[in-house]
Amino acid sequence: MKFSKTFLYGIFSVLLLVFFVMYRRESLLHVTAAFFALMWFVQIPGSLILALSEGKSENFLRLVLFGNVIGLALVPLLYYLLFRLDLHASFSLVISVLNVLLGLMLVIRIRKNNFTFSPPGKKEVQSMFLLLAVVMVICSFREFSQMISWKFSFNSKHDTDAGILMSMVVALKNYGFLVNMNYGSAAINYHHFVYLLMALVMKTSHIGILPLYQVVFPLYTFFFMALAAYYLALSLKASERIAVISAIAVLLLDDFYLLNQVIKLVIHKQPVFTIESIEWLHNSPSAAISFLVMFVILAELARSGKEKISWKLMLLLVVSASTLACYKISTWACLAGGMVAASVLNREKNKSLVLVAAGTAVAGFLVNKFLSGVAHSTYSSDGMDVNLAYPVMRSEAVKNYLHFHGDVFSFHDLSLKTAVVLALLTAFYIAGIFGVRLFYLVKKMKGGVLKNDFATSTIIFSVFGGILVSFFVTPKVGQHNALYFILTGMYLLSVVSVLVISEFLVVSKNFFLKATAITLIGIQAGSGALQVLQPVINPVKSSGLSKEWFDAMDYLKKNTEQNSLLAYNRFQLKENYYKDDFDFVPVYSERAVVVGGKQYFPDYEMKKSKLDTLFSSASPGDLKRISNELNIDYIVFDKWKGGSMACTDSSLITPVFTNNQVDVFKLKK
Fold first, then answer.
1. Of 525 and 98, more confident
2. In whole angstroms, what separates CA 536 from the centre of its chain?
């Protein structure tokens, strides 16, 4: 019996997912429910809104991808509206009613013959399932096989950041708003949209944080990011095969890791230039989502071309693109800057797209300023009031750490700021002129790829802008910010460079240049493959978390009050490895903690010092004084270093749980 390639890709993907879910001893029902919740919250309302706004669907892939992007914009905006009305606990009900109403409206239009639909083509479906299979293989190495609940271990240094992100998700899921400072481990005023989406899915499907973070969202974000890259390449008139290669190239993007290892062997030093792209991206779902949104918006610009577009489509584009300002502000900055530059410098202007560019810049600024997160002053560590705008950015220590002042980022040295801005504008102008010339050079090539002026100009300016900003501006705000500007440029360049290089290989008659291009592509793909395999072939050796530890966290989650405050003695994985970056007690107990992980607040050292005394002092007086001062409800003593709780005065604390790994005590009030 002969099976089609589409069927084989699909059944392979499903079986691989089921295998890892069973292997990890996760609930297949909850994982399935999480995917359905994600589709119900994002895909269905977004696709229905797109279909109703245009009255037709000539491109199934566009309906799926642009609809998904609209849904990604709708979820936080609807939630924030409900939050202001104090109805955010009813989000699932409201989105369900909205889906039903939108569905009924579409049915009415179909019955009146006011809607046309074109099913996907055979090649398109086959390419989609091929990309799904590739994503499944990559995620199997990078995500699915890691962080197993009964044998928890870290396989890259960046995975320790997972605790920060997961604590935000659990806080949103339990409280409906971002519980900052005492619950989350760091002051973060971005990524909130993806935290919110993950929290809503987690609450609705009852899935655990580990399979949500390591199975559901990696598969969703990487598959849709690759699919969006494929769609962008098709929109730029690439062939089906080249579009698939572009999408796979995005999944294997790397900074020539293989070449860097050779350099290190020769000079015995770390390479000067490294961005660790794929390693960072696997631990940043918001970055992957931001690239998905950016690719789809650019595909829409390419699709629109010189045509006048409707006000409905303009509104959808502006709202969707502006939400990037809270999914990933660096991606929004690159895209908005590229669109504005294309509006100004491109010779053939589309007035509709110029308005979209201006709207994206203004709306994105407003989104970042007013919708960067929700918080509650009850959990403010320094006792200061917090509000909707920048809720976790109020303490002086945080402002100093992030060079933050008021409600905008600023440099301390105004003269340097002026010089940098002038240099940036000059460099951006030169890069823009070069980019436009490069575009017209490419346009003259046989076959004529990248023909859309506005879209291609936006791509070129976004790439140059991302790289220039990372080198000229972010040294004052930190290397981490520079990384994401570079990544935006690199990921976007990766998609379009496949188109240009493939056409060059066809047109060029110079064997040496062809061989050079193929060699570079091979090194790049090999580097990406090595980065995918790195957790298996070169894992970071770090402490694991035992089954007994998870049993203790499960006890706390099921047997303590939701507003309980915990004190615990474990602040690292092991000695001299990511000290003060242990965030997993609040994640898996789903309870707030006195201090959690590495924090940047004025009272962190003071609280940490008191906790050290609490766990080391045998004096009942110290135990009573400190527990009252910090308002502690439960003490969690982790025996990972051996030893036991120094003071166990039965008049002050009562043991409620014990095993070989953890003792839990309840404070008597």
1. 98
2. 23
